[in-house]
Amino acid sequence: MHNIKPKITLVGAGPGDPDLLTLKAVKALAEANVVLYDALANEEILDYAPKNAIRIFVGKRIGNHAYTQDQINQLIVDNALTYGNVVRLKGGDPFIFGRGSEEVEFAESFGIETIVVPGISSVVAVPASQGISITKRGVSESFWAITGTTSDRKLSSDIALSAKSSATVVILMGMHKLPQIIDLFQKEDKGNLPVAIIQNGTTTEEKVGVGTVNSILEVVKQKELGSPAIIVLGEVVRESNKLKGFYEEFLSKEEIR
Fold this sequence. Notes:
Blueprint: E1 7-12, H1 23-30, E2 34-37, E3 54-57, E4 60-61, E5 64-65, H2 69-83, E6 85-90, H3 100-108, E7 113-117, H4 122-129, E8 143-147, H5 158-163, E9 168-172, H6 178-187, E10 194-199, E11 207-212, H7 216-223, E12 229-233, H8 236-239, H9 244-256
Parallel strand pairs: 1-6, 1-7, 2-3, 2-6, 8-9
Antiparallel strand pairs: 4-5, 9-12, 10-11, 10-12
Helix pairs in contact: 2-3
């Protein structure tokens, strides 16, 4: 155990499908002495770490926090100082709603070398898995990526602003606030705006519900959709080849009315 050189690599595990892990992530895991991992959509990803690597679950699920963020920061540093090479594995991308920057800053305050391996973010990959291009020429020239629930458990005030724009709106961690989100879009007269909700995106458990701002709450009830899910609001949802049939049928029914 002499000459241990502490190093921390923050690795994005991608949106859930283990094949969407980057080659750089696989290489980083192969060199890990310790892996601290979140509640990953697919734990098969841990198989890329050496068999003798220590694996520590530090994930969070709603109402069930294995560790606080401060404890996680300390665990990362303690393990790096004791064992050397620590991989901190986070779902999606570590810097998109992943609190990765806090972990990097804490480690660097101890003079520990840190490396970040970006991951494929579910913000982009999960809509793409349903053929939804979150930007599209002539339809949407930008997108918002918003957390539905802020650190103080409130609805992000950016959602009200996004509802005023013509951009695609992608909301993570928003299922518990869905009625409030829908209300904000209805206030902007966006009742007919297409919406897709994708639960467990890119995994074998994926479930999808599509509708409009006015109908999506009913769809969620019928299909029993819940967390973790991504909410996509915007005209680009209607453009998806996978979902086109639904919207053509839906709109013709609306016209008959």
